[in-house]
Automatic annotation (TrEMBL):
Signal peptide: none annotated. InterPro entries: 3'-5'_exonuclease_dom, Exonuclease_MUT-7-like, Mut-7_DEDDy_dom, Mut7-C_RNAse_dom, RNaseH-like_sf, RNaseH_sf. Keywords: Exonuclease, Hydrolase, Nuclease. One of its GO terms (molecular function) is nucleic acid binding. Transmembrane segments: none annotated. Residues 554-564 have a biased composition (Basic residues). This is MUT7 Exonuclease. Coiled coil: none annotated. Residues 549-588 are annotated as: Disordered. Gene3D superfamilies: Ribonuclease H-like superfamily/Ribonuclease H. The keyword Nuclease applies. It holds the Pfam family DNA_pol_A_exo1.
Length: 694
């Protein structure tokens, strides 16, 4: 609105004897304000609201105001949402007789204007004096669940009443048609949106939004648990993709001491097991004997007290016979460390937060099976070349909080993810990070600050769908049951991951040995995949320059330019920090590209070609060459090694200090070249460009 129009509106108010009556007369005689958007009527109304604040003597009271309020109420049902607030404020409707307001809303409701009645009730805060079921039922039938949420948003008691009502409707014995019958002629009626499945989802959404105890909705919770039971039986007895111990953990935590669920458990067991097997699991889940068939109850009496259920199904030797067909960890068991104290964890971080380090990162959490809340990370796995660290996050967070250092964990994780000198490998990292944020809210900005991150999910989205040189135990073209990371491991390393522990209860302590090995494998295999792809990208359908074909597509999110420590200048990727952080040392003496000789590792062919264009003396390793050949060439010909990732740690110890440089894999060839030239103070002139044979 122009300044000139605003001034004209305010001069108009000043000339009116009764601005409130004047505005009302204008609105009643015009239909302009009924449309959406900022109409002239809207502009005049909001200007009056501001003008009244500057002229406190204007507002009226008594009989005259009541008459104006009555006229305004008649208009509100036709009002666009943006006018409701200003009109309620100008005409002080919050001071009007409450019974009169309730009567007016009731009249709107009886006319079938359910949405308008609800919106007006919210604006006038009338909900505590209304029947929540009566007000919300027609809104749900019109698929206006968002308005229902807003209606109860500020009133915990109404939230509970609504949830109890919805839960009652979700009882399998309840006839939902009893609810819909009175509203058959309802406008915009959407019966397909009013069923137990949709209502159940709404219940879970409300439970999470309003942080209400799920025990308030036993029908919905029981039905969800029953679906979980059916799913677990399918995974164990049909797919056969869960170990017995893993399956048993979930069965016990799902059923608990719920008699209704115990009854369904017995029925499911009878379909898949013999009487002895049913008795064993019934005892594990503490099912009362009176709930069991006679044959099962008799078997229960014969059983001796055992710590753990015996094998329920026929011995299939699946676990032992199939083990050789899956990816196996190449490091000894003693190199897998389960960390539950901060003393151990700090030692781990000292090893992980080394420039040039390559870290496989993975996380595990207890499957929610559709229950309320986002999953919280129970285990953080960090894999290095020779060892794997499994961090017990719940225990570490609890200890840090007890010591008054809640931010300790988030500080270390942010340091890891924001350090461009450390290559972080993951698979579907965005999902992992969202669960990490749900576990530790201080990490909410971590994804924006990520640097040096390689998400191997990008490989799946490119061309790693051919059979790898080692992939020979299956015929090409046959559809594989593996998917996700397991399928990538199969393509690149020759054997899939054993995923039978994936759906484990990762919050239960102590972890089983199978869980520990699975968690370590999930993180360590990322290192092996990355090393194989770096060594021979073209065999897997990737470009010869892995920087362009893989790492350049790791994330769609922009990397933050700010450093974690603003006083610390960014170091070239992969270079050691010597001693305490001090002023940067003097740069080396400038040299020309003709004097600069390098050997580029085989994952950096794009960088090598770019440097050669600038006149640098470059040798490139072939795709089939071992990384160690770079060290031989460097020693024989006096060249600097340019490498990245895992090989840096090995190669830097084989040449003189400062003769091995780790390039940031998250950059493109041009940025990498600029980084190299700056670090070694190489001064390029116009005559150097294309001075060497390409």
């Amino acid at each position: 609105v122009s300044r000139q129009l605003k001034e004209e509106i305010r001069r108009g108010f000043a000339r009116l004897e009764d601005p409130l009556a004047g505005l009302l007369a204008m609105l009643e005689s015009s239909s302009d304000w009924k449309g959406k958007g900022h109409s002239l009527g809207y502009c005049i109304t909001t200007e009056l609201q501001l003008w009244i604040k500057a002229h406190p003597a204007v507002p009226q009271s008594g009989t005259k105001l009541k008459k104006l309020q009555a006229r305004v109420l008649e208009m509100l049902s036709q009002c666009p949402a943006n006018l409701l607030g200003p009109l309620i404020s100008i005409y002080q409707l919050h001071t009007a007789d409450r019974n009169y307001l309730l009567e007016h809303v009731s009249h709107l409701y009886l006319q079938g204007n359910y949405k308008e009645a609800a919106i007006l009730s919210i604006k006038l805060k009338l909900q505590p004096d209304q029947d929540v079921e009566k007000m919300c039922t027609p809104l749900l039938l019109q698929d206006k669940a968002n308005l229902v949420e807003d209606y109860v948003a500020e009133y915990p008691e109404l939230q509970r009443k609504l949830l109890q009502t919805l839960d009652m409707w979700c009882d399998p014995s309840f006839n939902i048609r009893d609810i819909t019958r009175p509203y058959q002629g309802l406008s915009r009626y959407k019966p397909e949106k009013f069923n137990r499945r949709v209502l159940s989802k709404l219940v879970f959404r409300l439970l999470e939004r309003f942080n209400v105890d799920p025990a308030l909705c036993p029908n919905v919770i029981n039905q969800r648990h029953l679906r979980t039971l059916n799913y677990l039986f399918y995974k164990r007895f049909v797919e056969k993709t869960m170990t017995e111990e893993n399956w048993g953990d979930h069965i016990q935590s799902t059923v608990g001491d719920n008699r209704w669920l115990q009854g369904h458990l017995v029925q499911l067991l009878l379909r898949h097991c013999d009487a002895r097997g049913v008795a064993q699991w019934a005892r594990c889940c503490q099912v009362p004997p009176e709930m069991l068939p006679r044959a099962v109850a008799e078997e229960l009496q014969k059983l001796h007290i055992q710590d753990r259920a015996e094998e329920v199904t026929k011995a299939d030797n699946y676990e032992s016979s199939q083990k050789k067909d899956y990816y196996q960890l190449p490091i000894p068991r003693e190199n897998i460390h389960f960390l539950q104290t901060w003393e151990e964890t700090l030692q781990c971080w000292e090893k992980v937060l080394q420039p040039g380090q390559v870290v496989g990162v993975d996380m595990e959490w207890k499957p929610s099976f559709g229950m309320v809340g986002k999953p919280r990370v129970a285990l953080l796995q960090l894999a290095l070349k020779d060892e794997v660290f499994l961090l017990d996050l719940p225990r570490l967070l609890e200890q840090a909080e007890a010591e008054g250092e809640k931010e300790k964990l988030s500080h270390f994780i942010q340091m890891l993810y924001s350090d461009a000198a450390i290559t972080k490998l993951g698979y579907g990292m965005s999902g992992d990070l969202s669960s990490l944020v749900a576990t530790c809210s201080a990490l909410k900005d971590t994804e924006k600050q990520m640097q040096g991150v390689v998400d191997l999910l990008a490989v799946d989205k490119q061309k790693v769908d051919g059979v790898s040189p080692q992939h020979s135990h299956e015929e090409k073209g046959v559809r594989q049951p593996e998917k996700g990371l397991s399928l990538l491991v199969q393509h690149v390393l020759g054997k899939p991951l054993d995923k039978r522990e994936q759906l484990s209860n990762w919050e239960k302590r102590p972890l089983r040995e199978e869980q520990i090995l699975y968690a370590a494998s999930d993180a360590y295999c990322l290192l092996e995949i990355y090393e194989r792809l770096c060594k021979d990208p073209e065999s897997f359908g990737l470009g010869s320059d892995l920087t362009e074909s893989l790492v350049g597509k790791q994330s769609k999110k922009p990397r933050a330019k700010k450093q974690l420590n603003k006083q610390e200048a960014p170091l070239p990727s992969g270079q050691e920090r010597q001693g305490p952080r001090t002023e940067p040392s003097c740069p080396p003496a400038p040299i020309s590209p003709q004097e600069f000789s390098v050997v580029c590792d085989n994952m950096l062919q794009g960088l090598g070609r770019y440097l050669r264009c600038l006149g640098v003396d470059v040798r490139l390793l072939d795709n089939g060459d071992d990384h160690r050949k770079a060290a031989e060439i460097a020693r024989q010909e006096g060249r600097v090694i340019l490498t990245s990732g895992l090989p840096y740690q090995t190669l830097r110890s084989q040449v003189g200090e400062g003769r091995c440089f780790s390039v940031n894999c998250s950059e493109k060839a041009k940025e990498q070249a600029l980084q190299v030239l700056k670090h070694f103070n190489v001064q390029v002139s116009l005559s150097d460009i294309f001075s060497r044979c390409q």
